[in-house]
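Hi R.,

Here's the chain you asked about this morning:
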Amino acid sequence: MESFQLLLVISVASGWFMAGLCWIVQGVLYPAFNFVEPSRFPAFHTMHANHTTLIISIPVLLELGSTTLLAWNALPGDITLQSALILFSMLLLVIIWADTGLRVIPLHNTLVKNGRQRDVIQKLVRRNLPRTLLWTLKSILLSILLVYIV
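And here is the predicted structure, written out as tokens:
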């Protein structure tokens, strides 16, 4: 397997891992925040944040690294469908990371500071949905590319 194919497989696999995790977080975990007793919420949220970080660390680094290398290699040549899909996937990943830093993490910080608040949890659910959809779209696009390349 050549390096391009290997990077594509890594990007697709790590992307689908993150998309799947986002769907679980979107549909189950974030809504479940409302069912944690307010007095236990700070400890619960700390556990959630710590364990989530451990679970996603390697996949997000693999996805970021592999997608970045794919995009970097797609830049110097003519724009083909292959390079366009890769560059668009990189753009989606940048948007996902920006959205995480600008919209989702501040809501988590509010929950850490102020405890369980139903309105903040509802915002978290609403603001996480675009990330979930974008991660799914990115994974679909690169999966299509993988099917046609391999």
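One quick note: The CA atoms of residues 35 and 41 lie 9 Å apart.

Cheers,
M.
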